Amino acid sequence: MLILGELLLLCTDTEHPKILITGGLGQLGVGLAKLLRRKFGKNNVILSDIRKPPNHVYHDGPFIFSDILDSKNLREIVVNNNISWLIHYSAVLSAVGENNVALAKEVNITGLHNILDIATDHGLRVFVPSTIGAFGPSSPRNPTPELCVQRPRTIYGVSKVHAELMGEYYHHRYGLDFRCLRYPGIISANSNPGGGTTDYAVQIFHTAVKTGCFECNLRSDTLLPMMYIDDCLRATLEFMEAPADSLLSRTYNISAMSFTPHDLVQEMQKVLPELKVTYNVDPVLQAIADGWPMVLEDIAARRDWGWKHEFDLSELVQTMLTHITTSNQRAQAN
Ligand SMILES: NC(=O)c1ccc[n+]([C@@H]2O[C@H](COP(=O)([O-])OP(=O)(O)OC[C@H]3O[C@@H](n4cnc5c(N)ncnc54)[C@H](O)[C@@H]3O)[C@@H](O)[C@H]2O)c1
Ligand SMILES: C[C@@H](O)[C@H](N)C(=O)O
């Protein structure tokens, strides 16, 4: 006969998903693992990547090497660990992709095919983030609805539209539980962006606190959708937990705020009045940003699964500056 403790353990094991995060050492994966581990237990969330993790990540919970281009190894990991949710974060982002189209094609397209096949074969729930970069200059830009023309001009955007369509196809054709959110540019204090067009909005905080000045590589009037990382990760968890029958779509826009570099600088100057910002526009990044949404419409996510953002521009700025100042002071004290 099972004693109560064993029974509780069995219940917890069966109730909680067993989660694998690919590409987990980028800007978003470590934070997501922390959130999911708090909810589902440390050992139920495996972080993976092709890079060596820093010590604190290695000691925080299970970490393994996984190259999404090695489909046999990926399959073994899913089977051996009884994975039920797959969060597919591996990707080559917009700026890096334009510098290495072959790599972006391999990771973002071939890698995605491996993920979808394995997820389908093993009945997994799979999350693949898309992006504002999945839209292009011929999409309506202010606001950009869920369903509209999508003709992106970057390999990153093309590969993300491909991911949206392939995932939805596998859902309709094979019943795959595919879930996809189009993230805005994500702003975080404790992790660095991986080479995208929206990176300025993270770098400005670190450089401003350290040096009091910043050189921005986008024009001061470039309006783009952005979101604080806590909102992004919470949205991902809530969307993964949403009952399948509430999801009228498998790909949703999520939105929090839109701002230009000028707006951001003005808000930061309320706390750092001496901040000096100059502009040295990168024509490649500017062309990408000029084809992306200015404002993302997310009515469907709010209606179907109750999406609600918490951070607006002023909260974002206060939170980022507090985090960065505190961790710089801690580093100096050590
Ligand atoms: N950060 C954002 O602003 C943002 C916005 C929209 C969408 N997204 C999407 O969210 C996901 C996570 O974004 P991020 O900012 O953390 O990305 P990132 O660039 O910071 O990290 C991507 C990770 O993928 C890993 N990777 C590369 N090739 C791999 C391979 N062959 N096998 C396994 N891992 C590999 C890299 O080592 C890296 O750690 C991506 O799919 C991205 O497109 C991010
Ligand atoms: C927007 C998003 O996909 C990423 N931060 C990029 O700029 O490429």
Summarize the structure in short.
The protein is of the alpha/beta class and 334 residues long.
Describe the secondary-structure layout.
Layout: H1 4-15, E1 19-22, H2 29-40, E2 45-49, H3 55-60, E3 63-65, H4 71-80, E4 85-88, H5 94-99, H6 101-121, E5 125-127, E6 130-131, H7 155-174, E7 177-183, E8 185-187, H8 200-211, E9 213-216, E10 224-228, H9 229-241, E11 251-253, E12 257-259, H10 261-269, E13 276-279, H11 283-290, H12 299-305, H13 313-333
Parallel strand pairs: 1-2, 1-4, 2-3, 4-5, 5-7, 6-7, 7-11, 8-10, 9-13
Antiparallel strand pairs: 10-12
Helix pairs in contact: 2-9, 4-6, 6-7
The structure holds nicotinamide-adenine-dinucleotide (NAD) and threonine.
Question: Can you walk through the features of this model?
Answer:
The structure is a single chain. The chain starts with a helix and ends with a helix. α2 packs across α9 (229-241), α4 (71-80) runs parallel beside α6 and α6 (101-121) runs parallel beside α7. The protein has 334 residues and is of the alpha/beta class. The chain has helices at 4-15, 29-40, 55-60, 71-80, 94-99, 101-121, 155-174, 200-211, 229-241, 261-269, 283-290, 299-305, 313-333, and strands spanning 19-22, 45-49, 63-65, 85-88, 125-127, 130-131, 177-183, 185-187, 213-216, 224-228, 251-253, 257-259, 276-279. The relative contact order is 0.12. The strands form three sheets. Strands 1, 2, 3, 4, 5, 6, 7 and 11 form an eight-stranded parallel beta sheet that branches. The chain contains 13 helices and 13 strands. Residues 93-94, 131-133, 156, 185, 193, 196-198 line the site of threonine (THR). Residues 19-254 form the NAD-dependent epimerase/dehydratase domain. One of its GO terms (biological process) is L-threonine catabolic process. Belongs to the NAD(P)-dependent epimerase/dehydratase family. Its EC number is 1.1.1.103. Catalyzes the NAD(+)-dependent oxidation of L-threonine to 2-amino-3-ketobutyrate, mediating L-threonine catabolism.
